[in-house]
Amino acid sequence: MKTLILAAGMGKRMNSKYPKVIHEIFGKPMILWVIETAKKFGEVAVVLGHKYEMVEDKLSSDVRIYIQKKQLGTAHAVMSAIEFVSKDDNLLILYGDVPFISYETLKRLEKVHLESNSDVTILTAILENPSGYGRIVRDDKIKIIEDKDADDEVKKIKEINTGIYIIKGRYLIENINKINNNNAQGEYYLTDILKFTEKISTVITENIDEITGINDRIQLARLEKRIRKKINEKLMKEGVRIIDPDVVYIDPQVKIGKDTIIYPFTFIEGDTTIGEDCIIGPMTRIKNSKIGNNVIINRSEVEKAEVKDNVSVGPYARLREGTTLDTNVKIGNFVETKKTVMGQNSKAQHLTYLGDATIGKNVNIGAGTITCNYDGKKKHPTFIEDNVFIGSNSSLVAPVKIGKNSITAAGSTITNNVPENSLAIARERQINKENWVLKKGGNKNANNKK
């Protein structure tokens, strides 16, 4: 089965300089959620229009693109891509602004379509307030009447057309050009494709969120909030404790183990996995990262990092891309890491930057330590081997290697490799000039009256 995604609309109500379908929901353009689901069925094409270059830039090369130069309705959009369809295909019609249509529902739609041998199979829903939607009218045969063309009796019907169909390729090719625009909108409605057959099936979905389209920023926020609530509730049923679900924000792909506690004002985003018995938050953001078991992350930022079991992070730490913390590592307040690997039982507790560093086991990084990894043109590595003690306020000028069991004295600027079992001291000798201040007329600041 092929899928055609209609995404040519301007989205005026978004009041944006960007096309509606590239506005993000859960950190990803909404059209990409649709494409991700559609690819599970086979080839995918999209119909673009308004500022199509911006949308095209977000799409992978395996998605075929067709341009609808004038937006004259849904049937006209399909006409723009009719060469995508062959007579032997079944064509699934989806929409770029309906991001959460589920694979399971579409699979059910496909099953009914194939078993019934229908020309058209429609996904429908029952709404308490169906205003604005086309109604499913079941007389001698099934038909769809748009809200603006409906009389009072039709408007009482609560079963609505979601706009999602599977259509036989042969039937579509033979009939798409028969559709006219004699309606209140003056548009070519794809719903009129039903006029030429009685072989029509329907499938009702009870999940309203999955067929909800987004037209403005208010709807975007409301839908995202409803989906987040479902995500949090599902995780809690699976054994995760979320202290206040109203102020915890977790993306759909995230996986969290049992007995982990999530504190308020925590954001867990993207492709993130968190193990069991962790304490996350408050005020923490984790994105596209892998977190082990028994990990504590408090008031910190973690992105594209791997944190193994029994690690403590924070408060106010930042783990950047390429960070790997082995078991029992401790990262304390105001510590930043990037492209850094820390071995078992190592720690950097205070006020430290570690970039492009490989750090062994049982290493202590003193407060105020910096790996000086950038020379203004390119980055250089720092290697700190097992059982090293880095004194406070050390600057390690890369490329440099600190050998096993070595110590750097506090306040040192290390520019050369340090052999194993050595003490490295790289600072000026302290000189005290006694009575120098008195000879120069005293300390003026000490004499000032407050």
UniProtKB/TrEMBL annotation:
Keywords assigned by UniProt, alphabetized: Acyltransferase, Cell shape, Cell wall biogenesis/degradation, Cytoplasm, Magnesium, Metal-binding, Multifunctional enzyme, Nucleotidyltransferase, Peptidoglycan synthesis, Repeat, Transferase
UniProt xrefs under InterPro entries: Bifunctional_GlmU, GlmU-like, GlmU_C_LbH, Hexapep, MobA-like_NTP_Trfase, Nucleotide-diphossugar_trans, Trimer_LpxA-like_sf
GO molecular function: glucosamine-1-phosphate N-acetyltransferase activity
Pathway: Nucleotide-sugar biosynthesis; UDP-N-acetyl-alpha-D-glucosamine biosynthesis; UDP-N-acetyl-alpha-D-glucosamine from N-acetyl-alpha-D-glucosamine 1-phosphate: step 1/1; Nucleotide-sugar biosynthesis; UDP-N-acetyl-alpha-D-glucosamine biosynthesis; N-acetyl-alpha-D-glucosamine 1-phosphate from alpha-D-glucosamine 6-phosphate (route II): step 2/2; Bacterial outer membrane biogenesis; LPS lipid A biosynthesis
Residues reported in the UniProt entry to bind acetyl-CoA: 367, 373-374, 392, 410, 427
EC numbers on record: 2.7.7.23, 2.3.1.157
Domain of life from the UniProt record: Bacteria
Binding partners and assembly: Homotrimer.
Protein name, per record: Bifunctional protein GlmU
